[in-house]
Structure formats: C-alpha cells, structure tokens
Amino acid sequence: MSRPTISDVARAAGVTKATVSHAYSGHRPISAATKARVFAAADALRWVPSSSARALAARRANAIGVVLRRDPAILASDTFFPAFIAGVEQTLAEREVALVLQVVGSRGAEERAYQAMAAGRADGVVVLDLHRADWRVPFLAGLGLPAVLLGAYEGETRLSCVRTDDAAPVRDLVAHLRERGHTRIAHVAGPLDYVHSYARARAYVRAVGSRALLREGDFTAGSGRALTADLLALRDRPTAILFANDTMAIAGTSYAQSRGLRVPEDLAVAGFDDDHLSAHLSPPLTSVSTDPARRGRVATARLLADVAGDDPRDVAVDCTALRLRASTDAPAPATARRTTPAPELEEEFR
Amino acid sequence: MSRPTISDVARAAGVTKATVSHAYSGHRPISAATKARVFAAADALRWVPSSSARALAARRANAIGVVLRRDPAILASDTFFPAFIAGVEQTLAEREVALVLQVVGSRGAEERAYQAMAAGRADGVVVLDLHRADWRVPFLAGLGLPAVLLGAYEGETRLSCVRTDDAAPVRDLVAHLRERGHTRIAHVAGPLDYVHSYARARAYVRAVGSRALLREGDFTAGSGRALTADLLALRDRPTAILFANDTMAIAGTSYAQSRGLRVPEDLAVAGFDDDHLSAHLSPPLTSVSTDPARRGRVATARLLADVAGDDPRDVAVDCTALRLRASTDAPAPATARRTTPAPELEEEFR
DNA sequence: TGCGACCGTAAAAGCGGTTTGACGATCCGG
DNA sequence: CCGGATCGTCAAACCGCTTTTACGGTCGCA
C-alpha cells in the first residue's frame, strides 16, 4: 500500500535503480527500448520519485525560500506581498520548483529559518524588506546560500540584487504637483531604514530641496492618519502630501476629509504601490504602480540562475508607472487654512 | 568548508551518530553529561541538521503544503489569500514547520503538485477554493495525504474540514436591508460551483424567497460592473445589491455612481470579505468580515493534528461579523428609476 | 551474592534516490 | 582480424539522518 520506490520500478522493468535514474535524468545515455520499458513500469506503478530522497542525494531541494519577519497582521493587509508571490510562482511554475515560505517573529527565529533553508529546505532565497546595512547580507553570504536581494542595496555584497528606480516616480510626482502650483509638498515616508523608503524619501528631499517637509511613518493606516494630522496642523501647512504607500494615503485622505478639507481642491494626495482599490476611491487616488509581480518574476529567474551556478549579478527592472488620478488633479489652493488636529490625536503626539 | 554533519558532531563529542540523534530527539534517554558534550560540540561546529536527510529518514517533511490553481493576477488582488497565509504561518511559527506553496495553471500540474507534496515535500495540505463535488477530495484520499478542506464540503470524505457559517451573515444582511424598507434585493454571487459562493447564494435565496434576483459573477471587478449594469437596467430594478465580495461591490458601486445613482440613497450596496480598504471608501462599504487569518490558524492546527495521527475531524469556526457601514445606511428609495446600461456593456451581454 | 531489570551507548541497517567506476558488447579503422 | 573507442547497463558507494537491535555496566532486591 505504501508508495512504490525506484527499486520497484527497476525490478518491474528488469533493470537496476541506476538505469531508471539515468533514464529520467539523461545523465547517461539509455537505449530507447530500455527507456520505454522503464517509463511504462513507472507509469504502471504510478511511481512519483520521493522529493526528500532526491533532495538528499542530489543536494538540491528544488525549492526556493522566502523568509519574512513581519507581524502577520501587517502581512495580511499588504498589497505588495501577494502580488510579488504571484510573480514568483509564475516563473517557478514552469520549472517544477516549489516555494517555501516562512514567517517569523524574531531575529533568532529568522536566523534559524535561513539556516534551515541552507540546510536543505531550499536552494536559495529571495530577501525582501531590505534594510540599509541589512545584517542578512553578510549572514547569507556566510551561509553560502544563493540569495537575491530585492531593493537597491548599497553596501558590499556578493549577492544578486534586483533594483528598481524608486526615485524617478517621486521626482515626476513632485513635478506634477509643481505644475499645478503646489509649493508646500510634504512626504510621509515609510520607515527610513528600509532601502525603498529611504530611496523615496531621498528623491523627495532632492526634488523639493529646502522646502522639505518629511515625516517618518510605518506604512500603517494609523501612522498615515496621525502624521497627516500633524502636517495639517502646521502654521504653513502643506497643500499636497506624498505618502509612501496607499494605505497611509487613504487614511490620510479620510482624516483630511473628516476635518473639512476637500481632496484635491484643498489638499492634493498621492500614494505609492497602487493598491487595486485605489482607482475606485473617491477621489480616485494618484499612485505609483510598482509591478510587484514583475519583480517577483525577475527576482526568481535571477535566483534560479544563481542556484544553477551563475555568478551573482545586479539586474535593474524598470517597473514603476505613475497613475495620475483625481486626488492630485486640481490647482493648488491659493490660501491654505490650517487645521487643528482632532483632540485624541493631540495626545498621540505628546 | 561544507556544512558539518551529524558524524562530525558525534566525533567531536566522542560518541556515535545515534547518540547525537537521541540527545536531540529524546527518543532514548541520554545522560546529562553526554548531552552537554553533544550540544557543546554541535554548537562549536554550528551544526544544523540537514532537513532533507531528516525528511528522508524520518519520513516527515516538517512542512505543510498549499497548492493553488489560480491565475496569478487573481491571486495578486485577492484579499483572502494573504490574510489566510498569515494565519497559517502564525500557528506554524510556533513549531518549526514550513509552508510549501505551489501555484499551478492546469489540472495536470495540480495533480503533479499534490503528488509531489505526497512524495515528501509536505506532510499534509490544506485545500482552498473548494468546489462542490471537488475532484481533489477523492484524489487526496487516494494519495493518503492528510488534508484539511476549507469550506463546507457536503460529500463523503475522510478528511478534516474547517467549516464556516456563510449563511448567517447573509440572512442578517437581508434582514438589515428589509428593516430599511428594501424589498427588491439582488445578489451578485461568485462562481456557484465554489462551496462558499454557493452557500452564500443559497442563504440569499432562502432569505428573499420568490423575490430572488440572482446573478453569477466571478469575483472580478469586471463582472461586478457588468452584472450591476445588468441589474440596474431591469424594469423593476433592485434597490439593494449584495455582492459576494468587496471587489465586485466596489466596481458595482462605481458603475452605479457613474450612472447618476447615489449610494446608499438610491441604491444600497454590500460586499463580502471586508477588504481592509472598504471602510475608507466613499461611502464606506458595508461588508462581512470573515477573519481569514483565524481560519488559517484553525485549519493549520487541525492539519498538524491530522499529521500527528489524529483522526480527521470537522471543526466549525464562527468567524463572520457584519460590518454595517454607510453604503447600506439609508431608507429604501420610494421609486426606483431604471438605469440604462452604458453602451459598451450592452454588447457584453449579447 | 546472584539475577533480572534497566540505563546509556554503540553498531548497523535502512530511508529512496544519485552518481561513479567497472565491464561486457558492439562498432570502427587500419 | 585485432585493438581501442563507444555505448548501455550494473553494482556499489554514497547523501546525512533516524531507528532498531545489541550489549556492557549498574542497580535493586531477595
């Protein structure tokens, strides 16, 4: 009743295990007649090679890994992750390679997870949520585990890296707002130790120069709301806010509206990442689509090349596109009336 | 330079491999002194047991699988999936079990994926997107692979099943609308061969009886828009529409608004699944949260029990909650003016 | 003091594949 | 017609861990 093994197939075909193996792998020539017998036997027995045995013998798991250190709640509301995974799976599906996913809560668990990957769970990993000076870069190099970094890592590394130009869309967005007469343009960034948050924030600062009005959020709706309240309470409040993701932008919009500001007439708002619902909001939200699926595909292809023995390499993928929508489509207001934050938010900022 | 093995550890500790193994597994008592030496040696060598070797010898992968047959594009915009995975990982994180994910495009690939899971990639699987009379149920049973079904499967099965009451929230929603005076309540369902779509649709039909106005969509924005157009063009058009997910509801709302209807004054709209943005739309969308993360946790716990040798069992999880918001919060309109569909949609329905 | 029970470790046999070295058979050219 | 190259298969050695069997040493108890 238990699964047939390669030996059963070999016996049924009247050959040895080695012949069966070679018939499938092609590592040695096998005569057509023998091959046919082997395949027929395998078919009859419904033999499926054990992937654990194969992984052990061939020293390759036929799987790639992703380990994520995140609060599951954040994962659940993240628009990037599922799209990225979809892309990964797209290029994986063609090969017969699986994706091993591990979500962990602590640094220790993360190290163990990567070690487990290196110890046979996966042939390589793709590294997300890259930090500037990320400890995982030397760590993975030390493990000797092929890895591709997603994001513009700036330090020394012998790992592949899939880079995206986060700066260009930010510059374009600023230009777009300037054309409409905005001069007080604020930016609510993501955590600045993430390379992509940092890149966006830096591009913003360079674009607006001395007029920079920067706040560091954490990508959650709560921080979007709180920082918007903060900005709108300034004496010389911004007339436009660039948020580092759509979640914060939406929360910010809804706060502004609740305080009586019209978007975009009194306040222009733009997000980042182009959540699939953003086009359906009122007003539709200007955003930047970043094609996570495409990056998933590219990163995976690169990783598979690394695993196959290719030398690590940087690849740039040009995947950002401005989605200009109504939330930024109005001339800048002539005078910007200041807004006092809702009482409960005051406290939040003590 | 290559990874140390259990033999290296054994040699360093002056014992045999078996002792090292037992020291960790506890399958045999090992004296404290020996254990200490073993652990010290392992530590010094930075030994991490090979998971492929372990999987082969112990006939257990320490991983569970999910195989999904979906268009990656759908995956990317699905709100259920990431939240569910987050839940799965939550209960997995406590053990050192990994999740193996495989997204496939065809029935054949799906069978191969499940076979690979059974052949050592995973110790069990959780089955999503359950159909009525799903071929995977007998197939998995035949494979002898522990599995838990997510959804109210009605056929014969020796597999565990995590059930949710989809009917109650639909009934409540209908009651809620009736209280506001609605008598023409339509339902845009998901594909009716999915058990959850079917359950929702059936609950709807039972609740409204002979006044049922049912359309079958496919969970995409496109179908939400098209079916809304269809319904609003009826002579006696509905004054309220229940959609089987938020994506369709949002697309439907935006269509209705574009045709000059106010939501909720002229048309009440409710969704399902409670996308994290739904509360931020204008108007905020009434929906039903279904706590996918919780179901992920429960399903995983159940699967791990099955894998450990427990008998398959059904578990009911009560995880739905009505989120009543503005999109349904108005009295039903006295007279419902009929809307003609936008021209391009006419064609779509030939 | 003697014997069985028990404890802790060693030794070895797998788990189900892959890979390599060896070898008989066939083929070829000189 | 013979020697070497090539082809196709076999046999056996792993891969790194788990698990079972065996066994010497202790201990408890009569």
UniProtKB/TrEMBL annotation, chains A, B:
Segments for region (Disordered): 329-350
UniProt entry tagged with the keyword Cell membrane: no
SMART domains: HTH_LACI (SM00354)
A GO term for molecular function: transcription cis-regulatory region binding
Compositionally skewed regions (Low complexity) per UniProt: 329-343
SUPFAM superfamilies with a match to the protein in the record: lambda repressor-like DNA-binding domains, Periplasmic binding protein-like I
Keywords: DNA-binding, Transcription, Transcription regulation
Domain HTH lacI-type: 4-58
InterPro entries in the record: HTH_LacI (IPR000843), LacI/GalR-like_sensor (IPR046335), Lambda_DNA-bd_dom_sf (IPR010982), Peripla_BP_I (IPR028082)
Keyword flag Transcription: yes
PANTHER family: ALANINE RACEMASE, LACI-RELATED TRANSCRIPTIONAL REPRESSOR
Protein name: LacI family transcriptional regulator
Organism: Cellulomonas triticagri
